[in-house]
Recover the amino acids of this structure.
């Protein structure tokens, strides 16, 4: 019997790892769509198809938010839509791994601001070193499009707001808040994205990539993370998620042939380490679905 005990936790760790990989494969598909239908159109396709999938699978009309829950659920959905929108705008001009690393400043800031530990100043300093190496603000910083960098920081702000409002929405409406949040995000972004992309958005040739973005960026990782959340604490789950910038860089290298400089890899490693360190020292507590922060 003793040999069977670690298996559920091992399966949960594997599920979380595959979910991260799935997110980034979805992002590589999205980056291939952006030159064709634009960032707004890609956002509309991703969130619109994801919302349709959840409508079929989750049937959210069975659990409509109460009047008191609607404000935070709306804020949660709008922050999700905005996060995806500006993240895809960032991907137009900077590498995927770099965009995810910069975006990770959002959840890292939330974790550190909620902490009262002195050691977190070390993680702030390490993240600052990583950003200094990554951004063209020091002699070692690589040349990056300033607009793309600003959009990536905007996505980080959106991710931070998503976490804050997601926790409040989960407390107000339970696990169904994540489904309602995604549908609200789709309602906010699909009309504008469809108007921007026009008839190109319904080109049948683009449908496989669109479905790939929806499945790999939402449906598949969401399902896998549900498996992980049942077995892992917030600390373990958050530490695992901290490796996402590195996974994004590897996925972009394999799928998109995006090459990063050694300095950029060191910078990403510093941000990953800072994120993992900030989360690993948090008290043990269960993780809920509405504390998830699924990026684009």
């Amino acid at each position: 019997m003793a040999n069977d005990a670690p298996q559920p936790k091992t399966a949960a760790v594997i599920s979380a790892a595959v979910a991260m990989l799935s997110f980034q494969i979805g992002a590589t598909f999205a980056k291939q769509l952006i030159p064709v239908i634009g960032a707004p159109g890609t956002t509309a396709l991703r969130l619109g198809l994801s919302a349709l999938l959840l409508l079929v699978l989750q049937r959210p009309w069975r659990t409509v938010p109460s009047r008191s829950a609607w404000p935070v659920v709306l804020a949660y959905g709008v922050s999700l839509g905005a996060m995806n929108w500006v993240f895809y705008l960032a991907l137009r001009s900077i590498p995927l791994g770099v965009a995810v690393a910069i975006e990770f400043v959002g959840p890292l800031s939330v974790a550190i601001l909620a902490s009262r530990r002195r050691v977190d100043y070390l993680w702030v300093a390490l993240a600052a070193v990583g950003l200094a190496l990554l951004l063209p603000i020091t002699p070692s910083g690589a040349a990056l499009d300033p607009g793309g960098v600003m959009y990536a920081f905007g996505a980080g702000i959106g991710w931070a707001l998503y976490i804050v409002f997601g926790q409040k929405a989960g407390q107000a409406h339970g696990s169904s808040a994540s489904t309602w949040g995604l549908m609200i995000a789709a309602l906010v972004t699909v009309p504008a994205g469809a108007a921007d992309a026009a008839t190109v958005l319904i080109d049948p040739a683009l449908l496989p990539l669109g479905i790939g973005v929806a499945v790999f960026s939402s449906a598949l990782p969401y399902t896998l993370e549900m498996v992980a959340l049942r077995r892992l604490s917030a600390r373990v789950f958050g530490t695992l998620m901290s490796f996402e910038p590195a996974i994004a860089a590897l996925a972009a290298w394999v799928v998109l042939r995006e090459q990063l400089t050694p300095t950029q890899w060191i910078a990403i490693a510093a941000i990953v380490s800072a994120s993992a360190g900030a989360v690993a020292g948090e008290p043990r507590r269960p993780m809920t679905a509405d504390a998830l922060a699924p990026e684009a």
The chain has one domain: 2-291. Confidence is low (pLDDT under 50) at residues 286-293. Residues 2-291 form one domain. The chain has eleven helices and no strands.
